[in-house]
Amino acid sequence: MSVPLRRIFLASLLRRRLASALSLLAIALGVALGLAVHLIHGAALDEFGRGMRAVAGKADLQVVGPRDGFDEALFATLARRPEVAAASPVLEIEARLPGREESLRILGVDLFRVLRVQPGLMPLAEGGGDLRFAALRPGVVFLSDDARQRLSAPGRSMEGEVLPPALVDARIAVQSGVRSLVLEAGGRVPGAGGVLGVMDLGAAQQAFARIGVLSRIDLRLAESVSPAAAQAALSALLPPGIALRTPEAAAGELGSLSRAYRVNLTMLAAIALLTGGFLVFSTQLLSVARRRREFALLRALGLVRAELMRGLLAEGATVGVVGGLLGVVLGHALAAGAFRLVGGDLGAGFFRGVAPQLAFDPAAGLAYLLLGVAAGVAGTWLPARAAAAVAPARALRAGEGERAGLPRGDGRGRLGAAMLVLAALACLLPPFGGIPLGVVSENGK
């Protein structure tokens, strides 16, 4: 396309400032929402995976049970097995901070075994003191650097009021169930991430009234034993309701749980992007009707239909590119704001205690930019096709109505009926990859 023609089509966009701005804004919003959801969920899963690897350490398998835990006698049974080189018992407590939105995840570990399986959970006493004496004092908790930073900053109440820091004078009030107690911060856990605290297993069981209860057991297998062989040999020893899994499975399970939440948010972004494409279609359709004489004159001067169609498609692509670029920038800004305000779980509670960091993803940014361009081009295609089909002599005829630049409605009733039939059939689609695409699920509901 020649330079004068490019200027003609660009000038058309500049003349329709309000319509072009609305189309651009709708595309930018769709791209921004979709990219922000992708960035937030991806960063939260990565951070959760890193946290799980730090917590699991060298564990090859984990024995997990119900939420209220299981009998610690199982630990002795598994620790004596020849398939197990080392075992580390863990009691996990989700301790609420009274009157606050935040919570503190506390892990009770055996300080004499944790170094062999979970070195990242090895605490350091405050001021370099003797860890054994510091840990044996009742009510002592060792905080990760993230937890100390978060708890030393002002928090928010359930009603949104600003509250003073939860950690004051190395003490923090926590609540688990109906039990409330004050814990003393005895040191750091430099190898752990997230809002996490570590206590001696016996002290945690006593403080939270969980005597004889464990939440999981981390196992490091003997060198000649594979995880699959160990699972086959040890599964028979497990009571009902208790299972063996690999540490990586936890992140996969959480990703599956949050998938429906992420799909819903992504569909909202897709609706916004579709709205942007429809606005492009509407503005381009009206522009074609108003510019029919201009197009007819260009055609009479030698402009072929293919060039006219390419010029109009270029207008839609321009709106898509600018809207997509704006959406990519806005998407990163939305993700950064979401990390500050609601965290990596977007308020859903899947990634509680995880503090992800925003990272630029070139591949995702390019993909969503191309989606914006596709929305702009798709919205322009039908008006461009209609404009190229209008005969110049007809459009230049005196008294010809503006309808000459619009596509005819003949046969649209049959097309609408066909679309309704396709929509009804789409509702009957079975779940794909566990995601219900239609309204009928596997159990027929």
Automatic annotation (TrEMBL):
Tell me the protein's name: ABC3 transporter permease protein domain-containing protein
Domain MacB-like periplasmic core, first and last residues per copy: 20-236
Localization recorded for this chain is: Cell membrane
Any one Gene Ontology MF annotation carried by this entry is: transmembrane transporter activity
Q: Which domain of life is it from?
A: Bacteria
Q: Name one GO cellular component term.
A: plasma membrane
The record's listing under InterPro entries reads: ABC3_permease_C (IPR003838), MacB_PCD (IPR025857), Macrolide_Exporter_MacB (IPR050250)
Q: Where are the transmembrane segments?
A: 265-289, 319-343, 363-384, 415-439
Membrane topology annotation: Multi-pass membrane protein
- Cite the ABC3 transporter permease C-terminal domain residue spans from the record: 267-388
Write the record's keywords in alphabetical order, separated by commas.
Cell membrane, Membrane, Transmembrane, Transmembrane helix
* One Pfam match: FtsX
